[in-house]
Sequence to fold (190 residues):
Amino acid sequence: MTRCDWAGPEQIYIDYHDHEWGVPEHDSRALWEKLILDGFQAGLSWITILKKRDAFRAAFEGFDPAVIAHWGETDVQRLLGNSAIIRHRGKIEATITNAQAWIALEERDGFAPFMWRYVDGTPLQNRFATMADVPPKTAMSEQVSKDLKKAGFKFCGPTIVYAWMEACGLVNDHLTCCPRHAAVKQMALR
Fold:
């Protein structure tokens, strides 16, 4: 099996690539969790986040925006003291702000419908042969980033947003040599 180059040799990475990455996600809370984790990943490798994902879920109350939206400095300090997660004040504070923004967006439009409208509800099917062909961001991720920021979100620049769009299956960026490209494409047809 020829996987995408980024799915290195560690089993946790292989499992993520083979079962999660690129699968179309339509659940608002799951989309939000992945956006938050992609924000924490900024400047780090994704494997670092994967290895800490369960600790993040525990520390952030299962990524329940209704809980996180009411957190304050005491919670920030608690999280800064948690060595099982990425301890970055700006990213932690952004998560609280993003929970508040998510709630407002969820009540107004629904987070999932808001996000999926950028691709008219159907994942974009790219056909990249090599990792060098895959862009770090696109005009669409720049627009999504701008719109998220307008809605009050932080740590959602166009590169983070594009990585998130790939992970959540809004775009299929599995390489054409990767068996997951065809499998994910089939999921988009359902």
User: Anything to note?
Assistant: The mean pLDDT is 97. Strands lie at 124-125, 171-172.
